[in-house]
Amino acid sequence: MLVRKAKNGDGQAGEQFIKKHYPSIYQYCFLHLHDRELAEDMTQETFTRFFESLQTYTDCGKSRNYLYRIAGNIIKNYYKKKKEIPVETLPEMPGGDMEDAESRMDIERAVEQLPDELKEITILFFFQELKQKDIADLLQIKLCLVKYRIGRAKKLLSEYLEVRE
Asked: Model confidence over 69-118: pLDDT tens digits?
């Protein structure tokens, strides 16, 4: 509904749409980039591209999935241009204690060790909390493959995290 209103020129609907989806798109970008400023830039670029394509956008699915697709393409293009492996940084964790920070770092390191096809699904499923069907639609793969990759990711993450303890 917000997308339709924004398409018809309602600026407030566009702002509401951004407020609704900004946190999840930002988190998605941050989990891939591990840099707050860069994740903000990529998130803003995602919304810019979304609104630039708004007149040709057809409501063929969830707009959130379309945002993830745009963000994923922006991130892939960034790494193609940069041709570097991202360097992990310690995220700021307001109010968290050292044990929480260490646990989060262990999980982030474990996710980084996953093969790319598992890493993407892990971020979408565990961190972005997308449904398996939505992930299948977003990545344009079969649902059974999503289920397999989630199971494989769980197993590998469990192994990686066991070794650390």
From this structure: 899 889 888 877 765 444 443 344 344 445 555 677 777 788 888 888 88
CATH number, position 150: 1.10.10.10
Q: Which long-range contacts (CB under 8 A, 24 or more apart) does 45-52 make?
A: 45/74, 46/70, 46/71, 46/74, 47/18, 47/22, 49/74, 51/6, 51/14
CATH of the domain at 77: 1.10.1740.10
pTM above 0.70, yes or no: no
Question: Are 83 and 17 in the same domain?
Answer: yes
